[in-house]
């Protein structure tokens, strides 16, 4: 992998990102002879991972000039790309947007790995990971496991070995490096989740997906380091529409009319799915008696009957049937057959999403990652469909982020739960008792409420309150997480499912 200086300049000029370069204190627009032949063998945005042959990107809210100085003095760094000039003895390539520059240069450095992969990308407030897992299981059938996955939870670049992800959508440099590794590993397909932050911070700048799927939208991720408003959040997410060759849209998404207008304003294939035949290409029918199956039928928008038929799945919850359908459509567009789709959907499980455990008295424990208003509300209504008895909900809300979730949770709990046990969920630098109080304050209707900050004890209490098969215990928010974030650090945690399993065994 390498990139020539002239090529760097050419790419930046073409995209209108190039401003000037500063070589040995002199300012240039055209490349001076002294640097024209330079080759870069490494790209990095971390000053600690630089050397003489690195092109370094200065970016980030917490970047400090001393990082760059140290890299120049101790690692021999000679070139950096930046939006501002620093007083260091290195050549500066000044650009108008460093994150866009980084994405474009990373693509060229790794020789455009996206051209050798069929890429499907999911966005939406909820269901990205679950849908990505459905697509992975389907395309594993189609490609014999030659499908890479970049999800919030796990990443695989060889189709079979998984490692924990840092971000939902990686920084562009990491993204194109990973894509290249997937290509070198012989992968033919890639499934990824695209967060609103990915668009906001240009992590996928210049990348065109084969299929982009818009699942749903509801207010979330609004706060000091994320989005200033819902409008900004929604706008960023919608960028997927103009950055995909084909689009799959959910008829049930809020603001659907706007999504449809924007999708149809571009000349590309648009498939719409939903839960009834109006205005969709395909819709999912559910049957109360058959929790683990659904039927697909073509809707009125077209004669799209390729997927018609009955499907079985392991994940409960009607929203998961929608997720399965979204993944099926996307997979179909990148080469999966109906049989492969049926097999893949039937095999899909997702850690921490709708995992269930039956207690000795017949009550059911649900472990689910629901951690915002839309997901908690959908989760509780799904559980309510299956249980006529008491619904006991254990949950907390994180510290130092998503502050609006606290009042959202209070509202949902007071409308949909019978017994509420407030506990810790990544309190970070905040006091979990104060967070619990904030949730409680937002409960508009009185509900039996307990505050037990120790999450294991909170689960034990919930389990002790369930009495018979009609009752349900819902452990919401942490999903498959095996840690609690306390004071900025990850503290080991057994995990909701394991805690419940041990409690259920007495
Ligand atoms: C707003 C945003 O995009 N933040 C991400 C971004 O931060 P940043 O560019 O501001 O960089 P920074 O962390 O302030 O660090 C400054 C820079 O100094 C560099 N550095 C640091 C130390 C040193 O010695 N030398 C050095 O050069 C670092 O490598 C970095 O480039 O780049 C960092 C990696 O370089 C990410 O860790 C960070 O994610 C933050 C922590 C984060 O949590 N982001 C969340 C909001 C996020 O993106 N979430 C979405 C999911 C949301 C959803 O569910 O929809 C996601 O896609 O994951
Ligand atoms: N289509 C959906 N509509 C509403 N809620 C959903 C949907 N799909 C999943 N959920 C709920 O949201 C939770 C998180 O699901 P998932 O991890 O698939 O979403 P995500 O978009 O990846 O979330 P995040 O961005 O928070 O990582 C699930 O545990 C479930 O409770």
TrEMBL record:
It comes from the Bacteria. UDP-N-acetyl-alpha-D-muramoyl-L-alanyl-D-glutamate binds at residues 47, 168-169, 195, 203. One of its GO terms (molecular function) is magnesium ion binding. It catalyses: UDP-N-acetyl-alpha-D-muramoyl-L-alanyl-D-glutamate + L-lysine + ATP = UDP-N-acetyl-alpha-D-muramoyl-L-alanyl-gamma-D-glutamyl-L-lysine + ADP + phosphate + H(+). It is found in: Cytoplasm. Pathway: Cell wall biogenesis; peptidoglycan biosynthesis. InterPro entries: Mur-like_cat_sf, Mur_ligase_C, Mur_ligase_C_dom_sf, Mur_ligase_cen, MurE/MurF_N, UDP-N-AcMur-Glu-dNH2Pim_ligase. Residues 352-479 form the Mur ligase C-terminal domain. It is an enzyme of class 6 (ligase). ATP binds at residues 124-130. One of its GO terms (cellular component) is cytoplasm. Carboxylation is probably crucial for Mg(2+) binding and, consequently, for the gamma-phosphate positioning of ATP. The modification N6-carboxylysine is found at residue 237. Pfam families: Mur_ligase_C, Mur_ligase_M. A motif (L-lysine recognition motif) lies at residues 425-428. Keywords: ATP-binding, Cell cycle, Cell division, Cell shape, Cell wall biogenesis/degradation, Cytoplasm, Ligase, Magnesium, Nucleotide-binding, Peptidoglycan synthesis. Its EC number is 6.3.2.7. Residues 123-330 form the Mur ligase central domain. Its cofactor is Mg(2+). Belongs to the MurCDEF family. MurE subfamily. Catalyzes the addition of L-lysine to the nucleotide precursor UDP-N-acetylmuramoyl-L-alanyl-D-glutamate (UMAG) in the biosynthesis of bacterial cell-wall peptidoglycan. This is UDP-N-acetylmuramoyl-L-alanyl-D-glutamate--L-lysine ligase. It comes from Pilibacter termitis. The lineage of its organism: Bacteria, Bacillati, Bacillota, Bacilli, Lactobacillales.
């Amino acid at each position: 992998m390498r990139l020539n200086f002239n090529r760097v300049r050419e790419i930046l000029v073409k995209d209108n990102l190039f401003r000037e370069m500063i070589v040995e204190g002199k300012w240039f627009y055209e490349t001076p002879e002294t640097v024209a032949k330079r080759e870069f063998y490494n790209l990095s945005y971390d000053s600690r991972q630089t050397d003489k042959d690195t092109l370094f990107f200065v970016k980030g809210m917490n970047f400090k000039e001393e990082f760059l100085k140290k890299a120049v003095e101790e690692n021999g760094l000679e070139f950096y790309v930046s939006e501002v000039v620093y007083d260091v003895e290195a050549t500066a390539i000044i650009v108008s947007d460093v994150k866009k520059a980084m994405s474009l240069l990373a693509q060229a450095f790794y020789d455009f790995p996206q051209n050798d992969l069929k890429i499907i990308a999911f966005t939406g407030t909820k269901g990205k990971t679950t849908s990505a897992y459905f697509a992975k299981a389907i395309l594993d059938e189609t490609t014999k496991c030659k499908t890479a996955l970049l999800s919030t939870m796990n990443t695989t670049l060889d189709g079979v070995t998984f490692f924990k992800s840092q971000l939902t959508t990686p920084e562009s440099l990491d993204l194109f490096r990973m894509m290249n590794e997937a290509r070198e590993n012989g992968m033919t397909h890639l499934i990824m989740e695209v967060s609103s932050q990915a668009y906001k911070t240009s992590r996928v700048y210049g990348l065109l997906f084969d299929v982009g799927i818009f699942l749903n939208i509801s207010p979330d991720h609004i706060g000091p380091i994320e989005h200033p408003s819902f409008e900004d959040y929604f706008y960023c997410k919608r960028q997927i529409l103009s950055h995909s060759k084909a689009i799959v849209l959910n008829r049930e998404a809020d603001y659907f009319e706007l999504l449809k207008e924007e999708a149809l304003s571009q000349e590309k294939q648009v498939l719409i799915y939903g839960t009834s035949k109006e205005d969709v290409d395909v819709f999912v029918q559910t049957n109360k008696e058959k929790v683990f199956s659904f039927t697909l039928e073509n809707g009125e928008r077209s004669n799209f009957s390729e997927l018609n038929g009955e499907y079985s799945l392991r994940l409960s919850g009607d929203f998961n049937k929608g997720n399965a359908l979204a993944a099926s459509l996307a997979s179909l567009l990148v080469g999966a057959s109906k049989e492969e789709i049926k097999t893949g959907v039937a095999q899909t499980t997702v850690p921490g999403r709708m995992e269930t455990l039956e207690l000795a008295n017949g009550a059911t424990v649900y472990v689910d990652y629901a951690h915002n208003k839309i997901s908690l509300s959908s989760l509780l209504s799904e559980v309510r469909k299956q249980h006529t008895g008491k619904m006991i909900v254990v949950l907390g809300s994180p510290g130092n982020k998503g502050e609006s979730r606290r009042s959202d949770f209070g509202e949902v709990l007071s409308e949909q739960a019978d017994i509420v046990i407030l506990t810790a969920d990544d309190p970070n630098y905040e006091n979990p008792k104060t967070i619990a109080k904030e949730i409680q304050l937002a409960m508009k209707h009185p509900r039996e409420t307990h505050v037990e900050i120790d999450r294991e004890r909170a689960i034990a209490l919930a389990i002790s309150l369930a009495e018979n098969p009609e009752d349900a215990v819902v452990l919401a928010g942490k999903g498959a997480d095996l840690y609690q974030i306390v004071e900025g650090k990850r503290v080991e945690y057994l995990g909701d499912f394991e805690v419940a399993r041990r409690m259920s065994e007495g």
